[in-house]
Amino acid sequence: MYACLSENTVQQGDYTLTAIRPDDIFLIKEWRNAQIDILRQQQVLTDDDQRRYFETVIFPTFGAAQPAQILFSFLYQDKCIGYGGLVHISWADRNAEISFLLETQRNNDIALFQREWAIYLDMLQQIAFGQLGFEKIYTYAYDIRPHLVETLEQKGFVQEARLKRHVFIQGKATDVLIHGVFNKNYI
Question: Domains (ranges, CATH) in the chain?
Answer without folding.
Answer: 9-135 (3.40.630.30)
